[in-house]
Structure formats: C-alpha cells, structure tokens
Amino acid sequence: SAAEKGGYDYFMLKEIAEQPKAVADTLLGRIDPSGSLTLDEVRISPQELREVDKVVIVACGTAFHAGLIAKYAIEHWTRMPCEVELASEFRYRDPILDGRSLVIAISQSGETMDTLMALRHAREQGSKVLAICNTNGSTIPRESDAVLYTHAGPEVAVASTKAFLTQLVACYLVALYLGQVRGTKWGDEIQAVIRDLSRISEEVDRVLETMEPVRALARTLAAKDTVLFLGRHVGYPVALEGALKLKELAYMHAEGFAAGELKHGPIALIEEDLPVVVVVPSPRGRSVLHDKIVSNIQEIRARGARTIVIAEEGDEAVVPYADHLIRIPATPTLLQPLVATVPLQVFACELATARGNEVDQPRNLAKSVTVE
Ligand code: G6P
C-alpha cells in the first residue's frame, strides 16, 4: 500500500531515501566516546582474531560487491590477505581454509542458499565464520560463529540499496576492528576514519538532495541498449554494482570494467554516443589513480562516448571531458563507495521507470534465492 511505501511510488525509492538513517543505525552504539570500536556482538575473542592469518569473504549479487570493496579496506587496515569469492563458486574449487581463516559471509536476507552452503563448508574446515546480515535470526547468522547485524531495517525492493550501504559500513567496522584488535596500523589514520565514518550519513543525505539532474539524465537514455561503467580501486566494485542495478531494473545490457583494463579490450566497445559512467577516485590521496582515470575519460570521449562522470566536489580536472557531471562530497578514498553508489541507484531506478518496468519486482528475480 501507499502507506507502507511512506508516500513514495516504490519501495526502492523509499529505501534509497532511508540510506542516511540506515547508515547511522549501523554505526549506532559501535563507536565508543573515546573513538574506539566496541563490537561486543562479535563473539570471536580478540585472541582468536589475533591468530587469524587470512580473511575470506563469500557472498552473492550486491552483497558480493560489498565484499569486493571490503577487501581493499581489510588489506589496507590490517595488512592481512583477504580473498573475496562468489559463494556459488567457493566450495566447488576446494578452497584452502583452516582454523586460522576468518570467513565473512555477507547476506541481506540471511537465507541465500549459495552463501549458506559456502559458510557450512568453511565451518567444516574448522574456520570461524562471521556473518554480516540484515535479518535478525535468519539462517546464515544462526549457523555462524558470530554476527554483525546491519540494522538497515526491512528491505522490500528486490534490488538492494540500503542493505548494500550498511553492508559496506559493517565491513569497514570489521576491518577497523581487526586493525584495532591486532594492533596493526592502529593509529591516527584509523581514528580519523572512524570520525569520517560517523559523519558519512550526512554526506549520503547531501548526495540525495542533488539527484534531480541524475533522474533527468536517466530519462534521456531510456531508449539506449547499453551502458558501460568504469571505475578503479574501490570505484571498480562500485562500477560493477552500477551495472548490476541497471541489468536488474532497466533490463539493459550493462557492464562494469576496471578502468585500467579498458585498453586490454573494452575500449573496442566504445562507439558514437555510447553512455559510459565513470566513477572517479579522489584527486587527493591516491592521485595517480585519479590522473589515470582522467586520461581514460579523455580517451573514450575522443572515440565518441557520452561520458557521465561521477567526481568529487572541487575536482576540476574532469570538467573538460564530462558530458554530464555528477558531484559527490569529498570522502577518504576507501569510503567513497558510500557516496558514489547512490547516484547509480537513482539512475537505475529512474531508467527502469522510464522504460515502464516494475521497479520493486523486476522480472525473473527474487529477493532471496533459497536454492543453489
Ligand atoms: C538475490 C537478490 C540480490 C541479492 C542477492 C544476495 O539474487 O535479487 O539483490 O544481492 O540475492 O542476497 P542476500 O540476501 O544474500 O544479500
């Protein structure tokens, strides 16, 4: 009913709008006044966490994209190796696991069969499993050693939005907590990131306030067949997520590429007026990546692409090459997906509407897939 949708036409729009609160709720009670993390609900002892020598993340769909982003954060803040794998591929290749592996299973529903089978396999090998989940008491957290709930509230639309952002927050918390417990790299940087994280909900809110031009742009692209997405570093999984949203909702051919791979194949796809969305890393921080992506934008535009550029406020280097410019607030590099994903959700939702598709219940898809 309209009341359930809180005045929005679709649950997806409501859930996109709820993201600032969802992100804040996931942080709630997990940062103590001194700026340290208290993840009491992670019932794997600090001693056990210190003995971990590798992290393995398993998930499907949108949750898998959260896992890909988590890898950058976990490896950077803990200096531990982290693998990410599609849950459906995991157990069939006989993965190398033991008592010192920490397996993180990410799932909104907590019922995805592929993810459940992956975590069962991990526990059989003696690994500890931490679930990152949005649904209290669901099967995946019940079968895990520990759980960090995402507190996004119920997500009804099949295409995941607020669950994804809160999965990212939970992954950052786990990465920072591992860094804190293990004493690696624990210092000014991690403290500063925790401060940035606690402000991020306002930044997501700011992005939401500026989405009208993104909707207008989406409507002009309703008759296109293909949209490509490019990103680099954590922007690469963001590109994959942008493409997934478009497949799920607009039933368009959409693909995400690592911008550095462009020259190894995908650039052959560029043709006159092909829309290409580019997620640009911050010009501060890893500025080498920024400069390389600016030249990618230049290259594809020279070959006729219609460039849709998502870049940080104040990044002037992209301006000459952007046919459409979508601004996002400046954030630390690793946190950028929390703001960069939002325009892509809005974009896909509006394109779906413009193409006359059912937004909340896309064809052929289910909210949770309980078969392998
Ligand atoms: C289904 C949904 C996707 C979701 C995936 C994983 O395919 O349609 O939106 O990302 O399952 O779901 P989970 O509940 O495990 O996060």
Automatic annotation (TrEMBL):
GO molecular function: glutamine-fructose-6-phosphate transaminase (isomerizing) activity
Top enzyme class: transferase
Origin superkingdom: Bacteria
Swiss-Prot/TrEMBL keywords: Aminotransferase, Cytoplasm, Glutamine amidotransferase, Repeat, Transferase
Keyword Cytoplasm recorded: yes
Catalysed transformations (reactions): D-fructose 6-phosphate + L-glutamine = D-glucosamine 6-phosphate + L-glutamate
EC number assigned by the record: 2.6.1.16
Keyword Membrane (UniProt): no
Subcellular location per the Swiss-Prot or TrEMBL entry: Cytoplasm
Location of the active site: K367 (for fru-6p isomerization activity)
Residues in SIS domain copies: 45-184, 217-362
Main localisation: cytoplasm
Function: Catalyzes the first step in hexosamine metabolism, converting fructose-6P into glucosamine-6P using glutamine as a nitrogen source.
Subunit structure: Homodimer.
Name this polypeptide is given: Glutamine--fructose-6-phosphate aminotransferase [isomerizing]
Organism: Streptomyces pyxinicus
